[in-house]
Amino acid sequence: PLPTQGSLLYLDTLRAAFPQALAPRGTALLSWAPGHPYAPAGWPLPSLYCTPSEAGALPSRAAALRVQLLFALRARALRVLEAGLAAELHDALAALHTGWPGLAQDLALGRLSPQPGLPEDVRGRLQALLAPDRVRAAELQAECARGFEGIVQRLWPQLEVLVVGTAHGAEQLYCDALRQADCKGLPFYCPFYQAAGALLGVNLWPEEPVPRFLLCPDWAFCEFLPCPAKEELRTVLLGELWEGREYELVLTARPGEYRCRAGEVLRVAGFHKQCPVVEHVRRDSQALSVRGESITEERFCRSLCRAVGMWPGARLVDYICVESALLGASSGASAPHYEVFVELRGLRDLSEGQRYKLDQCLQEDFPIYKSFRFKGSIGPLRLHLVGAGAFARLREALGSPLPMPRVLREERLLQLIQSTVVS
C-alpha cells in the first residue's frame, strides 16, 4: 500500500487543480489487480469510486476491464477516470470500440453478460449492483454511432481529468494516442513515481504536460549514482543532488530488503522546499545489446516513432523488440540482429523499403549501431506486423499489472506474439 501521506498529497493536489474531482462516487477505475480484492490505489477515501473493488480482481484482464467499463458507463456525472496504466485505459476503450452494442444492451437490461474469465458467483454479486437504465443505454448507442473521436468527453461531459499510474517510457505512446483520439481535450495526470514496488515521489503539478515528481525523503531510502558513471561508483544522497544533472537510482525500499540498482535514470528538474524534483529520463535496465551497443528502450522508441512518421497513414499502437538469440535456430544463420514486432493502425502492410526505414533511423541515431552494421557483426533488423489487439493479449498473458517490458526476454511471451504476426 502507498504511504498515507502520499495518498493525501495526491488528493489535495487533485482537489486544488480540479475542484469537483473528489465528488462522492465521481471516480471510475480501470485497473487490473489479479488474485486479490483491490482497494483502489490504496486511497483512504474508497467512497470516491463508483467501481466495485471486486471487479478489478478477476482472473482475466479483459474481463476485469470490461466489467469496470460497464460500471463507469453507468455514471454519467463522472469527474475522474483513473487507470493503473495508460495501456489499461487504451484497452478498455478498445473494448468499447468493438463491444459497445453489447455494453449498451447490458446497461438497458441491468445485467452483466457471461464472459470468459468472469466466474459465475462473482458475476451474480456484481450483477446485483446493477439496475436497468435504458436512457443511458440509448445515449451510449447514439454517441458510439457518431464515431470515437472525443468519445470520452462525449460520454462523460463533466469529466475533468484522466489519472494514469504510469505515463513515461513506452506508456507515453498510449497517452499520446489517447490524447489524439478518444480522450481529445482532456488533461492527463500521473500522480506518483514508483520503482521496485516502492513509492518514491508525488507529482504536485497535475496540469503540466511532462510529469515531475517531488522525492519524499522518508518513504524509502534512496541513493543516486551520477551519470555518466565514473570508474569509482560512489552514491550520493538526496541532499547532495545538483539541479540539471542525471542520476541512476539505488533503492532500499524497506528495512531489511536488498539494496539494488533500480535501473531508473532521473534528471533533477529543481527543488521544492529543499526536496529535489525529478523527471524520469529512461530505464537502463531495458536495453538492447547484441554486441555491447546498449540501446535503451526509450531511445529505441524514439527511433521507431521517427520511422513510423515516414510510413504514410500509419500510427504506432505498441511494439516489442527482441535480440535474435532468443529465437534460437528460427532466426536463421545471419549475424545477431533485432527482431521487432509492431502493431499499427491505418496501415496493413509495409514494403521492403519502408521496413528498412527503421534500420536506417537506428543507424542515423546510434553511430555504434551503424558501425556494427557496416562491419556485418550486427545483421539487418527484421520488422514484423502483428494483428490488432495482439499487445492487449500479450499483457494478459504476462499476468502482471505492472508496465510491460518492450525489450522482451521471455520465450513463452515471444511465442505468443509470434503467433499473431500478419506480415
From TrEMBL:
InterPro entries assigned to the protein according to its UniProt record, in alphabetical order: GH3, GH3_C, GH3_M
Domain of life: Eukaryota
GO molecular function, one term: acid-amino acid ligase activity
Pfam family name, one: GH3_M
Record GO cellular component, one term: cytoplasm
Sequence ranges assigned to domain GH3 middle in this UniProt record: 214-283
GH3 C-terminal domain sequence ranges: 311-397
Name listed for the protein in its UniProt record: GH3 domain-containing protein
Lineage, opening ranks: Eukaryota, Metazoa, Chordata, Craniata, Vertebrata
